[in-house]
Amino acid sequence: MGKTNGYVVKAQVLGGGRGLGTFKENNLKGGVQIVKTPDEVEKIVSKMVGKTLVTKQSGAAGLKCNAVYIVEKIKISKEMYLSITLDRKAGSAVVIYSPAGGMSIEDVAAKTPEKIFKLPINLYKKLDQDVLFKAAKDLGIEE
After folding, report:
1. Which of 72, 95, 102, 117 has its CA 20 to 30 A from that of 39?
2. pLDDT in tens, 47-63
3. Could you give the domains of the chain?
């Protein structure tokens, strides 16, 4: 690993809210950690892998962390939220997005639901360019 501004170590669990979670076995706060050196990466990884991350979504049982994702820390000029999931009611995939991204999209949904947008995806049709431009506008990236 060369010269960087640091690293972000992210617990890979099948659930949201990991950034605000706590590891059961060692009380490590946060399933997303920012560290400066490769040695610190190793220490944090050892505190995450094989441990149980308890989040708002997981309940007290928590979620086993069997892997981590390590990326170079970069300067963030704007955070957004984007996910693709299955909308069972509509019977299609849906893109959920928000200009108020960051650590707790659940709080955004609870406090300011008007900042959460949904774009249904029809796998048999091409996405309309006007719909994509509207999504960009919703995210505050009109340019």
Report:
1. 102
2. 999 999 999 889 899 99
3. 7-72 (no CATH), 81-138 (3.30.470.20)
